[in-house]
Amino acid sequence: MVAVNRRVPRPRELAPLLQFRRPTLNRTERRLQTAFTIEDLRRIAKRRTPKAAFDYTDGAAEDELSLARARQAFRDIEFHPTILRNVATVDTSRTVLGDTVAQPFGIAPTGFTRLMHTEGEIAGARVAARAGIPFSLSTLGTASIEDVKAANPHGRNWFQLYMWKDRDRSMALVKRAAAAGFDTLLVTVDVPVAGARLRDSRNGMSIPPTLTLRTVLDALPRARWWFDLLSTEPLAFASLDRWPGTVAEYLDTMFDPTVTFEDLAWIKKQWPNRLVVKGIQTLEDARAVVELGVDGIVLSNHGGRQLDRAPVPFHLLPHIARELGKDTEVLLDTGIMSGADVVAAAALGARFTLVGRAYLYGLMAGGEAGVARAVEILSSQVSRTMRLLGVTSLDELGPHHVTQLHRFTRGDSRPVG
Ligand SMILES: Cc1cc2nc3c(=O)[nH]c(=O)nc-3n(C[C@H](O)[C@H](O)[C@H](O)COP(=O)(O)O)c2cc1C
């Protein structure tokens, strides 16, 4: 044993070590200060949100393999830093679809957002305005196009289109978005029919949520969510007030499964600004839409909520970016849980990324303040990862910065980078 010289403790030396912080009085802020990762926000969200709403957000289709694999692909990244670069300042901005963004990520379109937290899309749009990132409003959004514009009046708003069987109604929304100055239309193409979201079926999910004995018991520790639901404007979007089944069942009654490439060309003719196709999963389809003259594509499997065991978008990225990156802007989503994931995607050729659940976990954890916390976490991870890699701008990132451990092998997959 090492002999240590001991002495009587001196209070004078202890004093500078005692740094009691002034307690944060706001309970939401206090809660959010304990979150350092998106996974931390997810844990808080789960405690505060009724099971049916949390599972609708957190869940994916069938066995949820598409989502699990997409997240795993990001975890399996190996970064290759360069050293001895001056990284005192770092610039995370770039031009995306003709305009500047402050970060290489933006908010993905999500339906029924007020089901997760009563502040819904407006919280997302307001945070996007402050952060200088785009906000995307879904056809199934629970805030109007005009209210989103009012919440993000000078920033970038994108509208996501689902083609309904009643095409006039879909195109009326597109016209409203153009009139409100939305600069980009995201046409989602991976929902010919809804994926099987089994958690929703098992939870007996309905819109708005119904009070059964089970939901009442579930509500007891989550009284705040129910109070918010009942004390604010009823949950509704466009024409739907009440639907007794799951969201997937609703989608199947409303959506047009006959949409083809010709329809995409038809939509493009009616949209005056940038058009991006969301839900591309093969090089051939990417080529076909680029030939139609679209401004960008989103490699996405809809956060694993549609086809299960779909390609991992991050695996598709290097090849498609190499083949088509000069002709179109390649965007990516699905599975992003950290700013490091965003940086890896940028290194492999993604011009931009979208985050769905990462933002929604923040929303459920604390409304607008929770979304702000999510964006703050992602932004600080982006700039820290860039500095640790030895780069000061996104354009300096390249495939040499990232390789991937080959947990999954696909017949036609190529090594990343
Ligand atoms: C709760 C929820 C609702 C969604 N609703 C829509 C939607 O209405 N339209 C759409 O194009 N994509 C929708 N998506 C997919 C997202 O736009 C995005 O592709 C996906 O969330 C990305 O994966 P991530 O959640 O892992 O970030 C939804 C995703 C979630 C989680």
From TrEMBL:
Annotated positions binding glyoxylate: 56, 162, 197, 302, 305
| Binding residues for FMN | 109-111, 138, 160, 188, 278, 300, 356-357
User: What residues make up the catalytic site?
Assistant: 302 (proton acceptor)
Q: Does the UniProt entry include the keyword Cytoplasm?
A: no
Q: Which PROSITE patterns match?
A: FMN_HYDROXY_ACID_DH_1, FMN_HYDROXY_ACID_DH_2
Query: Which Pfam family, an example, fits this chain?
Result: FMN_dh
Which catalysed reactions does the entry list for this protein? Answer: (S)-lactate + A = pyruvate + AH2
CDD domains for this protein: alpha_hydroxyacid_oxid_FMN
What cofactor does this chain's UniProt record say it requires? Answer: FMN
Source organism, top-level taxon = Bacteria
Q: Name one GO molecular function term.
A: oxidoreductase activity
User: Which ranges carry the FMN hydroxy acid dehydrogenase domain?
Assistant: 30-407
Q: Which terms are listed as keywords in the entry? A: Flavoprotein, FMN, Oxidoreductase
Q: Does the keyword 4Fe-4S apply?
A: no
The similarity annotation says:
Belongs to the FMN-dependent alpha-hydroxy acid dehydrogenase family.
**What protein is this chain from?**
Putative L-lactate dehydrogenase
Q: What organism does this protein naturally occur in?
A: Mycolicibacterium elephantis DSM 44368
